[in-house]
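The records we work with from here on pair a chain with its fold. Taken together, the tokens spell out the fold as the letters spell out the chain. To see the layout at work, look at the sequence and tokens printed below.
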Amino acid sequence: MSYPFSHYEESANYITSRLRGFVPEIAMVLGSGLGYLGDTVEDPIAIPYGDIPHFQVSTAPGHAGRLVCGTLGGKKVAVMQGRMHHYEGYSFEDVSYAIRVLKLVGCTTLLVTNAAGCVNRDWAAGDFMLLTDHIKIFLDSPLRGENLPQFGTRFPDMSKVYTPALQDIARESAKELGLTLREGVYCYFPGPQFETPAEVRAARILGADAVGMSTVPEAIVAVHAGMNVLGFSLLSNMGAGILDQPLSSEEVNEMAESRKEPFAKLILSCLEKL
């Protein structure tokens, strides 16, 4: 399905009507383990995705499926507690729909997190990675179809998807907190199956440090709409074939839970500096 601009406007107008004059500046898409940050927003206004015209509903386990607007880290935020994934049956335009809506609501920056498989053999599960670039060579682009010039140009530049100045803020925050922050390339796979050992080896050869099933569609659309982007991965497990053991969602969730406190401190420190 290709959404007309009027659909984005209707969604944005509904959210704006619920916010009663509050204008968020930073859109946050929180992956596995960090959704609870939406519950710490001050003066929250929570809007279930199902109430917003034309919005899709997240079905992934652990995703609350609501938009929480308010103040976090001293900044006006719109927190997505749960995201849509292509593997749920949604198109890439569905997956990234909310980003364009939040741009219309007033957000100029996207802060996005995910849980990812570690491809870099010199790193370990539990590490945090700052996204410096990504690889997407599978399936369609979220920009496929008629271009909406209200958001951006037909052929957007992707030289600096993840804003360099925001990366500097992340490095400063990690240093202040005494956290090791890896920096690397995220390779997008559509899922929902975990990658095979051969796919992990291929990703490594292509220059990837991590593999995952989210984030990239949202980042592409954000850049198209002229937003700044800051992205992080929690390396929740080693990629398939690196260790002689099967992968499971339980392993991902357990690591996300065990590392959520330092991850949250890093995100909040960055927010305060944005």
Notes: The radius of gyration is 17 Å. The chain has a mean pLDDT of 93. Residues 12 and 104 are 6 Å apart (CA to CA).
